[in-house]
From TrEMBL:
It holds the Pfam family TY-Chap1. Residues 209-340 form the TY-Chap central domain. Residues 30-154 form the TY-Chap N-terminal domain. Residues 340-362 are annotated as: Disordered. This is YbjN domain-containing protein. It comes from the Bacteria. It comes from Paractinoplanes deccanensis.
């Protein structure tokens, strides 16, 4: 089979248009930009004593007991201070090396202990007027130093000095902390009957497809429809385990596309196209295809006579595909998994001794 015929078997036989889903990097960049903008808009609205805690979810990142986080606090006089995890707070094997430490300092963080009250954390002092700059530093720290591949892999909590939660607008696609333990399960997604009730109400009137999809996705994510976030393409992002799943609603024809980036920065070869074609032929639903340098998985859900359980199943299947195939295809064809070993924070390679304690202290 030639590269052209294999590619045609997995792409041209389906009527979905791929160009808008092909540029994964642009989608990720847009998501981080939206996160930074939302954070910059939030900080000036907080009263003194307000806190914003941002954490790379260890259950998604595979970092075990290592918790990479940034905490921002608003003080009197318009002062805003931030603390970022240092090596003293990380278990051995997940501590940052000299390059990562240098990156933190280059971003503007002061070493642990320099900022009053910072303790073992890196510290940074700013003001409300510079909230945009601080938000940029925080986003780059979480993304470039701590290794978060997408804001959806972050959990956050906004609270006052008494740890009482503060109701705020969403921080882009980052997940509010109470929803961190949400599981995508057909058995318990609707255990309180909310989804069934909502869809029953929708059946009594003509409700647009996109509204019905939002109801289902919000229920699966244990959040509200108003809390859902969309990227520049209008896609809803769902962080499920170590996978990133996108949901897109199309009007003509009525269709819901559930898709996920399996592998990126991969070289398109005849062997890759043949492999994707073989895997697609063995899949009961869905397909695999390569667009530009990214391997995608896609499962369409028909919008006519839309069934909520079909969308739930598609998301579950997509999550399983991403978890199963990224390692297999990476081992055979290289490239980068959406959240693979190479994307995690790099542990210090230098042995720590009494003569060289940079890795431990900073």
């Amino acid at each position: 089979m030639t590269a052209e015929s294999a590619e045609g078997a997995s792409i041209e036989g389906v009527f979905l248009d791929e160009p808008t889903t092909a540029d994964l990097r642009a989608k990720v960049v847009d998501a981080w930009r939206e996160f930074g903008t939302a954070l910059a808009e939030l900080l000036p609205t907080l009263e003194p004593g307000g806190h914003v805690d941002l954490t790379l979810d260890p259950t998604a990142s595979g970092t075990g007991m290592a918790v990479y986080s940034v905490s921002i606090r608003v003080l009197d006089g318009g002062v805003v201070e931030a603390l970022a995890t240092g090596n003293a707070g990380l278990p051995e094997g997940y501590r940052m090396n000299r390059t990562s430490i240098a990156d933190l300092v280059a971003l503007g963080w002061s070493p642990p202990g320099v900022l009053a009250g910072s303790g073992d954390s890196f510290g940074l002092s700013s003001t409300r007027e510079k909230a945009g700059q601080l938000a940029t530093v925080v986003a780059r720290t979480l993304r470039d130093v701590y290794g978060a591949p997408h804001p959806a892999f972050l959990v956050y909590l906004v609270h006052d000095e008494n740890d009482e939660p503060i109701d705020t607008a969403p921080l882009g696609t980052a997940r509010h902390e109470p929803s961190i333990d949400a599981e995508l399960s057909l058995d318990d997604l609707d255990d309180d009957g909310t989804l069934a009730a909502a869809l029953a109400d929708a059946a009594d009137e003509v409700v647009p497809l996109d509204e019905r999809v939002r109801t289902v996705v919000a229920t699966m994510s244990k959040t509200t429809v108003d809390q859902l976030q969309y990227d520049a393409d209008g896609d809803i992002g769902i962080r499920a385990g170590s996978a990133m799943v996108f949901v897109r609603v199309r009007d003509n024809p009525p269709l819901v596309d559930v898709f996920s980036p399996i592998l990126t920065e991969v070289e398109p070869t005849e062997q890759l196209y043949v492999k994707l074609s073989e895997l697609t032929n063995r899949m009961p639903i869905g397909r695999l295809y390569c667009a530009q340098d990214t391997v995608w998985a896609s499962i369409p859900v028909f919008g006519r006579n839309f069934q909520a359980t079909h969308l739930m199943l598609a998301v579950q299947v997509m999550t399983g595909l991403a978890d199963e195939l990224d390692d297999r295809l990476h081992g055979e064809f290289g490239g980068k998994r959406f959240f693979g070993e190479g994307d995690k924070p790099v542990p210090a390679k230098e042995p720590v001794s009494d003569d060289h304690r940079t890795g431990m202290y900073l």
